[in-house]
Design a protein that fits this description.
CATH topology: Jelly Rolls
Structural class: mainly beta
CATH superfamily: YhcH/YjgK/YiaL
Shape: globular
Strand content: over 45%
Number of strands: 11
Distance between the termini: 15 Å
Number of helices: 1
Radius of gyration: 14 Å
Order of helices and strands: EHEEEEEEEEEE
CATH architecture: Sandwich
Largest sheet: 8 strands, antiparallel
Helix content: under 10%
CATH class: Mainly Beta
Length: 148
């Protein structure tokens, strides 16, 4: 997992060939973009999902992991409380891996919670099980999905 401010995005370009394009997109996001739900940036290899609304609260924690995509979760406005736990430490499967939608769910609790503030991003790799939206505050958030 990586947590940093969008102004530092260039430090991570070498981590993946599509990170530069993904972060360039995130730097130009504007509030009117949140009228969309999904925007393709590179077909099914790179796309953005938009969310605006309130977090679901800690009582609704569902940990998720992905095998085909890296998540770059960027808080455009507001803040999001996110949980994290290493995949190797998750043992309570809620839903087996769904290939078509690239997710697996766990009932394990986060081993850490991170408050991701406005203009910050969190990067979750396939070894990072995460629980977004566990805060209750309003946010505008973009999740860029980057194919592995």
């Amino acid at each position: 997992m990586i947590l940093d401010h969008i102004d530092n995005a260039a430090f991570y370009f070498a981590q993946h060939p599509m990170f530069e394009k993904a972060f360039a997109f995130l730097k130009q996001v504007k509030e009117s973009d949140f009228d969309n739900t999904k925007l393709e940036l590179g077909g099914d290899r790179l796309f953005a999902l938009f969310f605006k609304g309130d977090g679901k609260g800690a009582e609704h924690i569902v940990m998720e992991s992905h095998r085909k995509y890296i998540d770059i979760q960027f808080v455009f406005k507001g803040e999001d409380l996110m949980g994290h736990r290493a995949l190797s430490q998750c043992h309570e499967v809620n839903k087996e891996y769904v290939v078509a939608d690239d997710y697996m769910l766990f009932n394990d609790q986060p081993s850490a919670q991170v408050l991701v503030r406005e203009k910050y991003f969190a990067v979750f790799y396939s070894a990072d099980v995460h629980a977004p939206l566990i805060g209750t505050k309003e946010m505008y958030k973009v999740v860029v999905k980057v194919a592995l």
